[in-house]
Amino acid sequence: MFELISEHACFGGVQRFYRHHPKSIGLPMRFSVFFPPAAKNGPVPALIYLAGLTCTEETFVTKSGAQRKASEAGVMLISLDTSPRGANVPGESENWDLGVGAGFYVDATQAPWCTNYRMYSYVLELRQLLLDDFAVSPGAISIMGHSMGGHGALVLALRNPGMFKSVSAIAPICAPSQCPWGVKAFSTYLGTANKDWLEYDASALMAKLRRPYPAGILVDQGTSDKFLVEQLSPSSLEIACETANQPLQLRRFVGYDHGYYFISTVIDDHLMFHAEALDS
Questions:
Q1: Separation CA 38–CA 74 (nearest Å)
Q2: Known catalytic residue at 147
Q3: CA-CA-CA-CA dihedral for 174, 169, 49, 55, to nearest 10
Q4: What is the pLDDT of residues 174-213, one digit of tens each?
Q5: In the chain, N or C terminus with fewer CB closer than 10 Å?
Q6: pTM of the entire structure?
Q7: 166 annotated active-site
């Protein structure tokens, strides 16, 4: 079950915030849903957005301006928190890139994290909740994300072929097993066995597949992103897609950085990319 926390009229639709108690996490979690006007008349397609480090279920819907285009396209938008809250793991709030606000969309296997830090399974559980209890068209769910969330979106799409109609990412962490953010998170959540890390590495996963999304994947990256070289490595995904014969539209935007000014600039393109896929 889920509890409505608040709702707000928005671009002819309604922005709602919910609380529930998912089995995968074992703690209360919050998520947000934007219902476009079309949802008043029946089921609509849905797009799940996974946010980046330090964000919550509110960040995307308050900063991106995505509801305007989603309202026009008749697409429901779902955003969720980026980690459990209240797990009380020692040290979970000491670093901005680990623990609270930094679940990395993996299922932790290492104690004490493994009890509640199961964000990979949580996304799948939330997807099922949308199908069961919200006005979502069967089989019409896509996924996207930014930074850590871009990593999560790519991994969830690649590990679950056919579960998501389309996938896109903005400034994603493309090879987390090879970058400082990923190494820090994976060694903590998953242990030191590097082979386990590859199950959550989009570039490594893509290299083992064959054209999983024939209609293409959209990735946008700003050239002035301070994390581009050390943390994001879009070229790794580009090479993996070539190996997999996967169509990839990797767009590079000169002068744009890592934040929501960039996200708000390209979000309409991503919404239309997914709306076309969801309508097919």
A1: 5
A2: yes
A3: 60
A4: 999 999 999 999 999 999 978 899 999 999 999 999 999 9
A5: N
A6: 0.98
A7: no
